[in-house]
Amino acid sequence: MQQEFGIHMKGGVITERNPDLTTIRIRAPAGSLTTDQLRGIATLAKKYGTGEIHCTTRQTIEIPHVNPAYLKTIEARLEKNGTPIGSEKDEIVNIISCPGTERCKYANIDTINLAKRIDEKLFGKVMPVKMRIGISGCPNACTSPMLNEIGVIGRIRPIRTPGLCTGCGFCVYYCKEKAIKIRNGISELNEEKCVQCGMCVKSCWFNLLKSAHSHYLITVGGRRGRHPKIGRELMTVETEDQVIFAINKIIDWVYRRAWSGRLLSEQLDELQFEKFRDEIISKVPKAEPAGPGPAKSL
Ligand code: SF4
Ligand code: SF4
Ligand code: SF4
Fold it and tell me: pTM for this structure?
């Protein structure tokens, strides 16, 4: 049987420790797959692998121990299954996200829809550096977005309806950051401590806490691995369309300016982070520099 070589260049085709075998990584934005898709993958794993599958840290599935001679056939069948071969090299790799507003009671944004929209536009784009994008629906950051080259976190700025607070203290109880105190019978916010998680907004029985708006914090330059690094806060934007627009601008910038061989986190100082930040913010309508944000009152 003739072996197909071109397909080996795909990022989702990973040569194993035993170089005669290959692991196939599958594209699964937000780690979401239907039961039919899972069945399709299981069938292929049984027929062309050892019947085993592996769940990765980037919310993808892998079929290990595949004979490379069958790659072309498997690729076609995975396409038909709606679960094409994924990516692993210097590319935009699988977009990860937490359940967000689809399932989590703490979420401030629809993470899964956002992950799928980013995937549609950008997945697999060849880059000078590997680009990982991680999304979390709130500052609990269950998917560690700040350890990705680009991170997105859903936040809410709390604002209290003036004059109506009963001083009951529920918001104080629910704020894990100890950012709220009752003073003179009403709640008062310490903006420095507030991480804009929105728990107080959800906790007020009297519905007195509103949010100015839920919004998206975008971070850049994080990484996992042997020298982990927390990403830097870049900007906040208010809509999903703006997030996608901003990420496109970041990707364009990195594509043009970064060079291969080192991760973005290692290059950000040389690439002049401040210049990068100002340039991106100036291109995204209504974007604000990241920071505590104008949580005007509580
Ligand atoms: S990051 Fe927040 S919204 Fe997402 S799963 Fe964790 S707690 Fe829920
Ligand atoms: S939004 Fe701020 S004040 Fe409200 S619970 Fe979260 S950290 Fe505390
Ligand atoms: S803001 Fe709401 S929860 Fe907090 S003290 Fe006032 S009434 Fe109670």
Answer: 0.92
